[in-house]
Structures are given as structure tokens and as C-alpha cells.
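Input/output pair, single chain:
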Amino acid sequence: MSTVFRSRFAVTARAALALAFSAALGACSVAPVPEPPVDAPEAWRHNGALGPAPDFHGWWHAFGDAELDRLAERALAENLSLQQAAWRVRAARALADRSSTALKPDLAAHTFAEPAPDSSASYFQAGFDAKWEFGFFGRGQSNARVAAADVGLAEVDADAARVTVVAEVVRAYVEMRAAERRLDLMAQLAETSRRKHTLVATRERLRLASASDTDGSAAELASAEAALAEPRVAIERNRAELAVLLGQSRPIAITGAASPSLGTFALDTAPADLVRTRPEIRKAELEILKAAGELGIAHADLYPRLALGGSLTTAWRIVGHTQLANADSTVAIGPLIDIPIFDWGARRAVVDARDAALQAAVVGYRKAVLEGVAEVETDLATLAGARERVDALARAAAALERAEGSAATLRRVGLADDVDRAAARSAALRAELDAADAENARNLAFIALYKSPGGAPLPSAEPSR
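Output:
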């Protein structure tokens, strides 16, 4: 296993960065930049044998909730942030198409009119100009790569938006269902506390309990009733969040009532694969491409700009209002050369600045890899801890449920009263509440885990005009 991961890491992470450098620098006559190390481990430290991994681009299906699947699909189709990101991708691609024409032949028409100094006649000129600049010294390749990097950055932003939107939809839905479950359990707890308070008050009247016992049960009842407000607010808040994520102005109708159940899973993707999935790492790689392209343009500015130009011009002398006379035509064709000679080191300063920006982009790439791996490792550890807490609280809830059954048995045989049974029921409900909260925390940790490496659905179609 270690040998396989080491091979994949070497081929994936280092080759990806090497490809970024070679593609960006291309034909530029710039000294090659040393390849930086990519500090990613060979395997995840906190990933146990938990079963098969769900589809990385459809990870929310692991909850097995048809209503959640429907909401995620609606968000992908109707979310306004995704529509905005799609339009920005289209704008970037349009600008890239414009950039690709910068070094192609250009043809333009022009006219010019001017009166004679004595106002006895005027002159009118019309013609065509053609120019074709050659992208020597790496200028053409550098221009193209800067434009391609801009398109890639817009696409990465769109992918990141999809990651965020889907994760937020799943989070809001899971929290809403968890709040509904808490509300149900808290309502049962409040009813049990009310019944217990009634029984304790009856005991006090029969001089079998003290006033402090009654006050304690009253306080317990008030606390249970006050706790009902929190899940109700959480339900409304998450319903409103889901409406915004789906581009709706009003809370949406949500069917079903069961809480989503998360099955077993494992993240069996190697850390080096983050280079291809995590938006922040992909963005850092594109920043290298863009910085290298800008360095190539600055380097090309140190050398002459060469082009081929031509023109066809005809001039007329206009006498009076409509009489044309003395028409002359001129044809010119030849090379156009713009040679920089002396600018007090301004162009060289730009080269130095672009080179520093490239080095900063390389460091940013390494930083993005380190942060990406650290975030995933943290989420894996959080998820493992949440799973252990769920298991422990489930055992506690089961034990208290058995204790409640024992209290019911004792009540039937006359060895306990209804107050003892209500107390056992309250303890069992509180344990079930703790277990439900732990399960919700585990679900949220799962969402964070698949958001951190960039788990996102495939790109949707571009918006139509």
C-alpha cells in the first residue's frame, strides 16, 4: 500500500506542478524555475477501514435520503450563485477568444477630411490598413497562457461555488431534520416533566414530599418547556436557508420526516489527488500558469516587436461642394519594427516584479497543498471522534432505556411509583437527545470532510442567452 501511494504521489503531485511550469514557460527564453517540493503525505493518518467510499461527485447520496437528493439537484439547477458563476465563466471565455486574436492579421478601414487653409477646397482621404504582429520571443504563447489561466480561474471559482452550494444544502437539510428530531424528543421530555411535576405536587399534598421537591420539579418543567424554542427557531432558520440556496423567496415545501442516516464509508483517495480536486489547489496551480505567462510577456517586452504592415490610401481634393479633383492613390507594404533602446530600466523592473510574483505563486501552491492536506486530516480526525462519541452515547441510551423498562416493571409489581418511572423516562429521553446531537455532529463532520477535498458535482450546462 505504501509503495502504491508513494508512486501515485510522485507521479500526480510533482508531475502536475512540473506540467504547470513547462506549459506556462513554454517557448519563453526565461531561466527555468526550480521545481518546489509538494509536502503531502503518502496516506491518510486518520482513515480507518470503514467500508467502501461513496461517489466522490455525489457524496450526499450516502445519506440515502430521496428528498435530500431532490433538493441538491434543484440547487444545482436554480441557485443564483451558480448562475452568476456560469456567466462569469462565459465572460472569461469570451475575453480569452479576444486575446487569441491579438497576434492575428488585423484589417481596418479609415477616412479623413480636412479643409484647405484658405477654405477654397478640402481634402478627403480613405483607405485600408493591415497589420500582422508576430509573437516572437514567447509573446504569443505567454498571451495565450494568461488568457487560458483566466478562464481556468473562472472555472475553478464555479467549481468552488458548486462545492459550497451543495455542502450548504446538505448541511441545512441535515440540521433541519436534526432540529425536528430534537423538537420531538424535547416535547416528550416536557410532557414527562409535566407529568412528574403533577405527581410530585400530589405527593406534597399527601405530605409525602417537601415543597423543595415540588419547586425542583417545577424548575425542571420550566427548563424543558424553554428548551423547545431552540429547535423551532433552528427549523425555521434552516428552511429559510434552503429557500435562498434554491433561489426561492419563500420557504420551500419539504416532504418526509425521517432523519437522514449516514452509512459507513472511507476516503480512499490519496493525498496527491487533492491536486486535481480541491479548488484552492487548482486555483494555486492556475496562478502559477498566469504568473509565468505574465513573466513571459514582460520578458518579451525587452526585445523588439516585429510586424508586417500594409496600407492602401486614396486622397481627393474637393473643389466647391461636390467636384472631385486630383485623386491620388498610395500603396505601402513592409516590416514594422519597434525597438526599445533606453527606458531607465523600467522594463527590466517589470521582469523582476513578474519573476517575484511567479516565485510567490509557487510558494502559494505549496501552501495550498499543505493547508488542503491539513484540513482533510483534521476533518478525518473530527469524523473519527464523532463516530466514537455516537457509539458511546448509543450504548448509554440503550442502558437507560433498559433502566426505564426496569422501572416500569417495578411499578407493576408495586416496588416503585410513577415518579420513579417518570424520572427514568426523563433520563432515557435526555440520553436519546445526546445521541441524536452526536449523530448530527457526525453528519456535519462528514459534510465538512467531503467539502474540504473539493467534492462537487459535474459542471452544469452554461446559461443560455
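The chain has ten helices and four strands. Strands lie at 106-115, 121-133, 305-319, 323-338.
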